[in-house]
Amino acid sequence: MISERKFICVSCPLGCGLTVTLEDGEVKSVEGNSCPRGASYAKSEVKDPRRVFASTVRVKNGKLPVCPIRSKTPAPRGKLFEIAQAVAKLEIPAPIKIGQVLIHNACGTDVDIVASRDLESA
């Protein structure tokens, strides 16, 4: 069975309109990309879509009540809600260092959740 998927590439600032042709679930062609990153993005988007996760985590005894966090690498799109639920349960004691791993292998994804800034104790 042949199908098409259309979306906008976010790999670079050009924002090319991509058309991916699939045959029996396999990528047969990618059209509309102005650079090689577009073809790579299109293939990964239809096979294993991933997104950077960003949020905040509660901080115990910190100068601020929350600290911004993000995934160190993009996480599987289908796991983002589960990761958000795990983050919502956390309260990290200050001090926190930028890049500090707060959740290792978040929800079995091989993606670490890290602090996005330093945060001192109160």
Protein model, in words:
- Helix content is 17%, strand content 38%.
- The protein is of the alpha+beta class and 122 residues long.
- The protein folds into two domains: 2-47, Single Sheet (N-terminal domain of TfIIb), CATH 2.20.25; 54-115, Roll (CPE0013-like fold), CATH 3.10.530.10.
- The strands form three sheets. Strands 8-5-6-10-9 form a five-stranded mixed β-sheet.
Main attributes of the structure:
single chain; 122 residues; alpha+beta; N-terminal domain of TfIIb; CPE0013-like fold; five-stranded mixed β-sheet; three-stranded antiparallel β-sheet; 2 helices
What secondary-structure arrangement, pairings included, does this model have?
Blueprint: E1 2-8, E2 17-23, E3 26-31, H1 36-47, E4 50-51, E5 54-60, E6 66-71, E7 75-76, H2 80-88, E8 91-93, E9 101-103, E10 113-115
Parallel strand pairs: 5-8
Antiparallel strand pairs: 1-2, 2-3, 4-7, 5-6, 6-10, 9-10
